[in-house]
Amino acid sequence: MKDIDALIAVRHPIGRASGLPNAHYMDVSTFAEESQALLLGQWAGLGVAAQVPCPGDAVPITFAGVPLFLLRDRDGDVRVFQNVCRHRGMILVSEPTRIEGAIRCPYHSWCYSTQGRLVATPHVGGPGRNSDPKLDTSDLGLIEVRSHIWRDVVFVNIDGTAPPFERANAEVIARWAEFDAPLHHDGRAFSLDIACNWKLAVENYCESYHLPWVHPGLNAYSRLEDHYPIEGRGHAGQGTEVYRQLTDGPKRFPDFPGLAPKWDTAAEYIAVFPNVLLGTHRDHAFAIVLHPDGPSRTQEHIHIYYATEQAEPDLADRNSAQWRGVFEEDVFVVEGMQKGRAAPGFDGGRFSPAMDGPTHAFHMWVAQCLGA
Questions:
Q1: Which of the residues 12, 77, 111, 286 has an alpha carbon 20 to 30 A from that of 307?
Q2: Cα–Cα distance, 150 to 303 (Å, whole number)
Q3: 158 assigned to some structural domain
Q4: CB 300 within 8 A of CB 194
Q5: 157 closest CA partner among 298, 251, 43, 12
């Protein structure tokens, strides 16, 4: 049960606001309430289109307790369906696969097209009878979930109530409009399993305040004072005015086309609420999709992109290893904050008015979605 007074305190001006109470990081019933309001009721990140590169490719993903599968249909469109047969609720796709014909239920062999239409119901009217006049199968196709792809991330609105994606995220789409170019996944995706509530990963990503102590190598050239905060409707994060391309002699990654001169030395890192963390640079980008696993565990799925295919493989190996190192440096921080939420005297903490604006913006978004 949410404490409405505590949520109202989150939405106070930053100098006197409190952070979200401990229950929002530990309590099972609070996690369930948040899952409904923040993950199922908004445009949440499910995966990336690169996970299903060819027609027929399908990947099962359970998100916020809901069994889904990501699919590229025969026409090349990416779709998301609830991963259940309409007959008796059997799971259809149990592992990543390429569907050569129809999507076949392993229980009674009901079959669906890659567009979700029910196309076969063997023996449904008795042995050898594949239809039954008493059963109308015309509306028994797979249950499709609203989805939208932006920057290769497949966003879903599972309960169907969110406004259109382009409207809900208009500000951040406009902010990065000049990066609206093809993204080429480099195949070097990796995942981290972290013992923390998913919101702590978002909070940490939003701010640069921790750089000198948690990322001393990064801070050695892109210093705390080189960073600026980003706050907007449905997103928050940080940018830097100092970005140095990774090089190997004359080798470097090609730039995205048509960028303004400021991106020669700048980069931005934005959390698109609730659970997608994006980074963009002149020559590469990344997407992190957070999958909550109960109130105290999170899987981070990291995907890296370039402006061209086969972008300098040796450099790409170094780049992937470098980013993995940076993200692994954050693990002890978010896990430490998770352990700290067991302290009964901790009241949600406070915010630095100068340094924590983006993190406070995320807390306010959570409180607002929960009715404060």
A1: 77
A2: 14
A3: no
A4: yes
A5: 43
Say yes or no: 142 and 215 in one domain. no
Question: Which tens digits make up the pLDDT trace of 87-132?
Answer: 999 999 999 999 999 999 999 999 999 999 999 999 999 999 999 9
Residue owning tokens 């305040």: 209
Q: What is the CATH number of the domain that holds 86?
A: 2.102.10.10
**2, pLDDT greater than 60:** no
Asked if pLDDT for residue 175 goes beyond 90, the answer is yes
**Phi-psi region for residue 9, left (φ > 0), alpha (ψ -120 to 50) or beta?**
alpha
184 with 312: CB under 8 angstroms? no
Q: What is the domain range of residue 357?
A: 4-43+169-369
Total Cβ atoms within 10 A of residue 228: 12
Give the count of domains, the chain. 2
Return the closest-CA partner of residue 151 out of 190, 191, 186, 181.
181
Q: Please name the amino acid found at residue 327.
A: F
- Distance between CA atoms of residues 10 and 199, nearest Å: 15
Could you tell me if 187 and 145 lie in one domain? no
Is there a single domain that holds both residue 35 and residue 61?
no
312 touches 254 (CB < 8 A): no
- pLDDT in the model for residue 1: 42
The answer on pLDDT for 75 being more than 60 is: yes
Do 140 and 173 lie in a common domain? Answer: no
Average pLDDT, the chain: 96
